[in-house]
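Need tokens for this chain, all 352 residues.
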Amino acid sequence: MSPLSPLSPPSPSRPTYPRMPAEWAEHEACLMAWPTRPALWGPAFEAARSEYATVARAIADFEPVIMIAAADSVDEARAVFGDDPGIEVIELPIDDSWLRDSGPIFAYDEQGDRVGVDFRFNAWGEKHYPWTADDKLASLLLDRLGIPRAHSSMILEGGAVTVDGEGTLITTEQCLLHPNRNPRMSRAEIEDEIKRRLGVEKIIWLPYGGLEDTETDGHVDGVAAFVAPGTVVLSLPEDPAHPDHARMRANLAVLEASTDARGRALRVVAVPQTTHGEVEGHPVEVCYLNFYLANGGCVVPVGGTPEDEAALAVLAEALPGRKVVGVPAPVLAFGGGGIHCITQQLPKDLNA
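Here are the structure tokens for all 352 residues:
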């Protein structure tokens, strides 16, 4: 395994290494995990499994899916997916099913080989006990996939970052500087570790994630995402009564004043639509920004409301050449996330 080190100045003509590829780079597969914590979902547990299955099938229309299941639910998961050739179920110990955060974050090393970066995981600031199996999952999964592991002692969830694959990363101060993650690390030390492990040259710090995103403390994948080099989609609620109305405009001001690692001004595509629903008597907000970019497609959480159509149209315009598919996901929102939160892309092996 080659150690990761900081990037050299980028070449405008070809990628540099090490680097974390953008989500729109070609994938070998999508990684997911089967719901296994009934206490989180309560009476909505079976509905959660149904939504996970629907998401997996939607993604499998674009790329293979590897579904991780705990020993006590692996037979059930295999029965759900049957002989579907696009979805493989494997058994590994897990505590929860938000693989974006508990799984590895993939990068390419100096030789262009895949490396799984295994950041520590503490269940979003020790919110859900136990999390020991999830903290060990990245290592076990990388062994299963035959991909080298690079360990970091820093706590970092995949939903806390979005990258352009060309040296730029966006995150939120609300999450990454929260004292329940890395209280002994300064902002500069956090930046240095991210740059070293993910091959990033420039970090853009948005002040805010979602105000009501208390589960992840404001992950960036609830408010903004790179969709192309130099292009960011941003949640920008048009309703002045929305709790994030002013906060997302503060994020917009940061993006408009920023350039990426290659000196380009950022194009910001606003998603003004928001949608709400109810699950088991609890109000939920389904986040359109929490989508997954599959090979040739974009799988978007929707709420089954009139706002869905306009939001999907905005994303389709921002993602030319991709098929944009809406999948109902109110139960995922009830659990604290969306489609991006339950998925993790496995990039293509460039040297295969």
